[in-house]
Amino acid sequence: MAWVKSEYAAELAVLSTWLVALLPWSGALVPIQFGGRDVTVIVIRFLYFRLQYIFGISFGNQEQVWLWVFDAPTFTQTAPIANWAWVAAAAISLLPLALSLLYYVDEEQLEDALPIDPVRLQGGLLALLGLVLGFSTVLFWTGQMYTLPIGTLFALGFGYLLLTVDRTGSDGATDDA
Fold first, then answer.
1. What is the pLDDT of residues 67-90, one digit of tens each?
2. Paired residues of 39 in beta bridges
């Protein structure tokens, strides 16, 4: 049984890429003790920025609620390799995003220009993105951090769907031939 009909594969490739780009790839809840107080930190990571909320204590103007992805490697409060993996994932995500925009603008021209099926290419790129985000999520994981890899799972799931979609029409010929 096919998850996606062949005639909707291109639309799924475009929309799934946009959804992955908009969803947070990771959400984390970190309960800690700081100065004798119970403090809860909520970290929501999107591909291109991070939001962090701290409940139970205030640092005044020194709180960094917003952090761009390119600033992540200099942010020393978390694992540096995880931050670099996040930067790599953000860079990788630009490839399927650009491809999806080209695919949206002119589907037939892109299919003719590429030597491989653009749907499968999108699937491979989203799967690669999901793997790098998963690697980063594992590196961010600590014993006291509860992480939910939302967008990571979506990227892997959509990558799998696009890689396994049946691209044959009702006449048995492939759509990309």
1. 889 888 887 566 788 889 999 999
2. 32
